[in-house]
């Protein structure tokens, strides 16, 4: 894993956006898979500025990384809503190029089976954007004894429900289940960027970088094996100092 340490959030967002921009310039029909959360918002804003300055995203294919089960796509807490607001609409990605997770509990199994196939049918993911949870999760792959290889339904840990409750009016409203890309699906991405900023992420980053094992209790540790994964981390997350 390549590690790029940058001064602050803005530098992290700029470095991440530049990687995505150069990919899209080289390959206008690239397949991208997008994370949600507060971390990549700066990167997405910078991509939107590049688009305003003329970079065309209309050829790219866009996949969701993960999604809460049970929230409708027009619920502002859903990742569908987030990606529409912050990525798909600002970059003017055509609707037919967008592949979203189905959050309907009744259709979870069929959706999971079809989603990995759709990614393959589009030629595989060229760039996977990832954040990291405070407990070391990536996507919604939570620390566990075993990690799922394929995309599917996952149960959220108490820690994640608590951490993510900051976006909800009440912790009671945070769904307990989610759809997440599997380890193999993420791993097949040709390029991965893992973003981390702020002291809040220091423990997760330290644990990841100090760890010398492939540890399913630190889901991000599998990224150490990927041939083209870049961790872009700001000084606060790297050092633990504001
Ligand atoms: C959520 C998402 C992850 C995201 C993580 C970090 O649990 N499922 O994909 O990377 O939170 O979020 P944040 O960037 O807000 O710290």
Description:
By secondary structure, the protein is α/β, with parallel strands linked by helices. It has a single domain (2-239), classed as Rossmann fold (3-Layer(aba) Sandwich). Helix content is 33%, strand content 17%. It has eight helices and ten strands. It has helices at 9-26, 41-52, 79-88, 108-121, 158-164, 183-187, 202-210, 235-239; strands spanning 2-6, 31-34, 61-64, 66-68, 98-99, 127-130, 152-155, 177-180, 191-196, 229-234. The strands form two sheets. The chain has a seven-stranded parallel sheet with strand order 1-10-9-6-2-3-5, sandwiched between helices. The chain has a three-stranded antiparallel sheet with strand order 4-8-7. Helix 1 (9-26) packs across helix 2. The longest helix is centred in the first third of the chain and has 18 residues, at 9-26. The radius of gyration is 17 Å and the shape is globular. 40% of the residues are buried.
- From the helix content, strand content and strand pairing, which structural class follows? alpha/beta
The CATH class is: Alpha Beta
- Count of alpha/pi helices: 8
Shape: globular
Question: Bound compounds, please?
Answer: 2-amino-2-deoxy-6-O-phosphono-alpha-D-glucopyranose
Q: Radius of gyration, rounded?
A: 17 Å
Order of helices and strands: EHEHEEHEHEEHEHEHEH
Q: Structurally, how many domains make up the residues?
A: 1
Number of strands: 10
| Proportion of residues in β-strands | 15-25%
Average pLDDT works out at: 96
Approximately how much helix is present in the residues? 25-40%
CATH architecture: 3-Layer(aba) Sandwich
> CATH fold name, please?
Rossmann fold
Q: Main sheet?
A: 7 strands, parallel
